[in-house]
Specification:
about 180 residues, alpha/beta, Secreted effector protein pipB2 fold, 7-stranded mixed β-sheet, 3 helices, about 25% helix, about 30% strand
Length: about 180
């Protein structure tokens, strides 16, 4: 069980944003409630998959017969957040993530856990003694409209990187690109 849980129910803001130039960007999941702001670093692929899976959950919910939840099929304009990240103080680098649905509050639930590195020679007893198994976790619950806006923004942020080479499919840098096409 994580020793420190950064928990946000009905946060004021939950977004994915970046710091840096395309090709050297760091992605962050940032959540704010009042004056409490938590930023966790994540990989571009994690951000893309998170957006995709949130949309899948919402799309499934909107097709359920007799669905008691008002799930928007598109992003509510009033929930669009195109602002920059607030001051970033990285809490941890995300390893495992999980995504779920809480029907009691009609919210999408995002969990982010830090990357853990455990030496193969260590055993559980020594971890408990050292306190090395004490970890953090980010737990965020967001309503369906906010979740739809979160997914849209995240897709836009991920897509705003370097253009893809039409020949080899790899990202192209502004200062040039050498295609690495496989030889026939």
């Amino acid at each position: 069980m994580p020793s420190r849980i950064h928990e946000f129910d009905w946060p004021d803001r939950a977004v994915v944003g970046t710091i840096g130039l395309p090709g050297a960007r760091t992605f962050y999941l940032q959540v704010r409630a009042g004056t409490q702001v938590v930023s966790v670093a994540l990989e571009k692929q994690q951000a893309a998959l998170l957006a995709e899976k949130i949309d899948e959950i919402l799309d499934q919910l909107s097709t359920v017969e007799g669905n008691p939840f008002s799930v928007p099929t598109s992003t509510p304009i009033e929930l669009v957040d195109n602002e920059q990240l607030e001051a970033v103080q990285e809490q941890f680098r995300t390893g495992a993530m999980s995504l779920g649905w809480d029907p009691t509050t009609a919210q999408v639930v995002i969990e982010a856990h830090p990357i853990t590195t455990v030496d193969a020679d260590d055993n559980d007893a020594s971890l408990e003694e050292d306190g090395a198994n004490e970890t953090e976790m980010l737990l965020v619950r967001i309503p369906v409209g906010t979740a739809r806006a979160f997914a849209m923004r995240t897709r836009e942020i991920v897509g705003a990187g370097r253009p893809t080479c039409p020949l080899c499919g790899y990202p192209m840098d502004a200062d040039g690109h050498i295609c690495t096409l496989p030889e026939d």
